Amino acid sequence: MPDLLAALLLGIIEGVTEFLPISSTGHLLIAQHWLGQRSDLFNVAVQCGAILAVVVIYRQRLLGLLMAFAGRDASAGYDPLGIDITPAQWREYAYKLGVAFGVTAVLGVIAKQMGFQLPETVTPVAWALIIGGVWMLVAEHFATRRARALGERSHITWTVAVLVGLAQVVAGIFPGTSRSAATIFVALLAGVTHRPAATEFAFLVGIPTMFAATAYELMAIAGTPAAAQEDWLALVVATIASGITAFIAVKWLLSYIQTHRFTAFAIYRFIVGGALLLLVPAGQ
User: Fold this and answer.
1) pLDDT digits (tens, 9 = 90+) for 222-254
2) How many other β-carbons are positioned within 10 Å of the β-carbon of residue 258?
3) pTM for the whole thing?
């Protein structure tokens, strides 16, 4: 298969799976067994392309948050959840995003330096998909019970912000976990019963996280032989494809979760994880 076509397919796979709770990293690792291995920079860059889709979708929300950080009145900003947010609440929300990102950045660098990473083989990815599916069903069950008892809760607490930051680190260490699944469902378990609110926070905190990860990889590769060996055209093609398909996937997901639970994604994870364990030899 031509290299550019392979890069295009990998970009599409990344864009479709980055924000669906089915693990983009896991799907990329699996796809690269057939389409060819790629560098860490390539894998992070295509994720960054998908994050750009969220920037576009939440551009007015992000503008409001930036205004809040600058001390300006952001109360007239667009709120996709339809909640009347005061300027103080805008600032608090922005600070919580900062805390979640800070936890991820500090612990992520520590984990990277200490080499905390599962082998990038199919078997651990398969188990992560299955275990993640169980985690999703459990979180959805308790969130639904809590919502019936206490009503819908969309407020992001400081505890939720810290736990979301931790969840991003866990997702980075365990390929196949899914960053979006880990963060959305830890928020649901921690008391956010409103699925769109949990999803929005998870998506927004992913913006600085993935941009920082891309910058980290770029600094690591700058001036090294790996930079000269990188296929930059393939990387650009994959990143653009990732951004376009991620935009479509996020728009669909935000509409889907208004009236549906995440159960279908858990079932998908069980099917894919089980198939991988049955069909792919151990150690590959």
Assistant:
1) 777 766 777 889 999 999 999 999 999 999 999
2) 9
3) 0.84
CA distance 284 to 270: 19
Non-local (6+) Cβ contacts of 225 within 8 A are none
Phi, psi for residue 71 in degrees, rounded to 5: 80, 15
Cα–Cα nearest to 36, from 62, 8, 57 = 8
- Over the stretch 251-270, which tens digit does the pLDDT of each residue have? 999 999 888 889 999 999 99
Q: Do residues 47 and 168 touch, judged by C-beta distance below 8 A?
A: no
Answer yes or no: are the C-beta atoms of 224 and 27 closer than 8 Å: no
Q: Which one-letter amino acid corresponds to residue 77?
A: G
Domain spans in the chain, listed from the N-terminal domain onward: 3-279
**Could you tell me how many helices (H) and strands (E) the chain has, helices first?**
12, 0
Long-range contacts of 29-36 (CB under 8 A, 24+ apart): 29/120, 29/121, 29/122, 29/125, 29/175, 29/176, 30/122, 30/125, 30/276, 33/122, 33/280, 33/284, 35/1, 35/6, 35/9, 35/10, 36/3, 36/6
Is residue 49 within 8 A of residue 243, CB to CB? The reply is: yes
Provide the terminal-to-terminal Cα distance of the chain, rounded to the nearest Å. 21
Of 53, 46, 40, 58, the residue nearest 14 (C-alpha): 46
The DSSP code sequence of 145-206 is HHHHHH-------HHHHHHHHHHHHHHHHSTTS-HHHHHHHHHHHTT---HHHHHHHHHHHH
Contact 155, 128 (CB under 8 A): no
Dihedral sign, CA of 71, 72, 73, 79?
negative
Closest Cα partner for 153 from 94, 91, 81, 59? 81
CA 231 to chain centre: 25
* Burial grade of 257 (CB within 10 A; 0-12, 13-18, 19 or more): middle
Tokens at 111, concatenated: 């984990």
